[in-house]
C-alpha cells in the first residue's frame, strides 16, 4: 500500500546523514574548503519535529504536548526525572497496557467493519454482468480471453496488475515497482484467491479478480494490511512457466 508519510530521521537515517556529512567534509578537506555549519536552531527544530512525527497517532492522541516538551528539555539538559524510578516504571507499563487495549479494540472494530462491507460487496457483485463465482467464493470477470497456456499451481507468472480495495483505493500495482514492467510472481507463495484466479487464465488474458477476505489476507494480516479486506486485482497474464529454484518472491499478492 502506498501512503504519504512525512520522512523520519531514524537512527539508520541519522547514521547515513552523518556518513554523508563525513564524506562532504573529506571532500572539502581535499578542496581546502570548510563545510558550512548547520544553523543550530533549525537543526534543533528538525530533530524535535521528527521525534514528534515518529510517534504513532495512537500515542500522540494520548499525551500532553506541553508535558512532553518539558520532559524532553529536562532530559536533554541532564536533569533528573521528577518521578521516582518505581513510579516511572509503573506508569510506563500502565500506559503501554492502555495503548495496547485501545489498539486491540480499534483493530477489532476495523476488522468487523471491513468484513461487513466486503461481504455486502461480494453479495451484490455476484449478480454483476459477466461476473462468475467459483466454489471457493472467488469471483472473476473476463475482460479479454487469452490464447496461451494456463499456469500450474507451482508456476511463476509474469503479470501486469493493479490491486485496489472495494472503495477504489489502490494499494499496489506492478507499474509502481522498480522497472515498471510485468512482475514475476511464484504462485505457490501468494494468497489463495490470486493463485486460484491466475490458474483460470490463459496467457494473454485480462481478468478482474474479486477476492473475499478469507481468500486474501484474512483477519490478522502479517504485512500491515488492514484486516478482513475484500480486494480486487485487475490482472493481465503476460507469461507463465516453471519456477526456477531459489527464485525470490515478488509482487503485491504475497
Short description:
With 254 residues, the chain is an alpha+beta fold. The chain is built from 6 helices and 7 strands. The longest helix has 41 residues, at 85-125.
Topology diagram in text:
Elements: H1 11-31, H2 40-53, H3 57-60, H4 65-76, H5 85-125, E1 131-133, E2 139-144, E3 155-165, E4 170-173, E5 183-186, H6 192-200, E6 206-211, E7 231-242
Antiparallel strand pairs: 1-2, 2-6, 3-4, 3-5, 3-7, 6-7
Describe this structure in words.
The structure is a single chain. This protein is of the alpha+beta class. Helices cover 40% and strands 18% of the residues. It contains six helices and seven strands. The chain has helices at residues 11-31, 40-53, 57-60, 65-76, 85-125, 192-200, and strands spanning 131-133, 139-144, 155-165, 170-173, 183-186, 206-211, 231-242. Strands 1, 2, 3, 4, 5, 6 and 7 form a seven-stranded antiparallel beta sheet that branches. The longest helix has 41 residues, at 85-125. The relative contact order is 0.13.
Average pLDDT, rounded to a whole number, is 86
What share of residues is helical?
A: 25-40%
Low-confidence stretches: 1-17
Question: Largest beta sheet, briefly?
Answer: 7 strands, antiparallel
CA radius of gyration is: 25 Å
- What class do helices, strands and sheet pairing give? alpha+beta
Q: Shape from CA axes?
A: elongated
Query: How far apart lie the N and C ends?
Result: 13 Å
Number of strands: 7
How many distinct helices?
6
Series of secondary-structure elements, N-terminal to C-terminal: HHHHHEEEEEHEE
Amino acid at each position: 500500500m502506498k501512503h504519504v508519510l512525512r520522512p523520519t530521521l531514524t537512527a539508520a537515517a541519522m547514521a547515513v546523514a552523518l556518513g554523508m556529512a563525513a564524506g562532504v567534509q573529506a571532500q572539502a578537506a581535499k578542496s581546502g574548503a570548510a563545510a558550512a555549519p548547520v544553523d543550530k536552531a533549525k537543526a534543533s527544530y528538525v530533530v524535535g519535529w521528527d521525534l514528534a512525527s515518529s510517534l504513532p497517532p495512537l500515542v500522540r492522541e494520548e499525551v500532553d504536548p506541553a508535558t512532553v516538551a518539558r520532559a524532553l528539555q529536562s532530559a536533554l539538559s541532564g536533569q533528573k526525572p521528577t518521578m521516582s524510578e518505581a513510579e516511572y516504571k509503573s506508569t510506563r507499563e500502565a500506559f503501554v497496557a492502555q495503548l495496547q487495549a485501545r489498539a486491540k479494540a480499534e483493530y477489532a472494530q476495523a476488522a468487523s467493519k471491513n468484513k461487513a462491507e466486503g461481504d455486502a460487496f461480494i453479495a451484490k457483485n455476484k449478480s454483476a454482468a459477466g461476473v462468475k463465482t467459483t466454489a471457493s467464493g472467488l469471483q472473476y470477470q473476463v475482460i479479454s480471453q487469452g490464447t496461451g497456456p494456463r499456469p500450474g499451481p507451482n508456476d511463476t507468472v509474469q503479470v501486469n496488475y493493479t490491486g485496489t480495495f472495494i472503495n477504489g483505493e489502490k494499494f499496489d500495482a506492478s507499474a509502481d515497482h522498480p522497472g515498471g514492467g510485468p512482475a514475476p510472481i511464484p504462485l505457490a507463495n501468494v494468497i489463495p484467491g490470486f493463485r486460484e484466479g491466475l490458474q483460470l487464465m490463459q496467457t494473454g488474458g485480462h481478468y478482474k479478480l474479486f477476492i473475499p477476505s478469507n481468500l486474501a489476507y484474512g483477519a490478522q494480516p502479517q504485512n500491515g494490511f488492514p484486516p478482513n479486506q475484500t480486494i480486487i486485482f485487475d490482472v493481465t497474464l503476460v507469461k507463465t512457466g516453471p519456477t526456477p529454484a531459489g527464485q525470490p518472491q515478488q509482487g503485491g499478492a504475497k
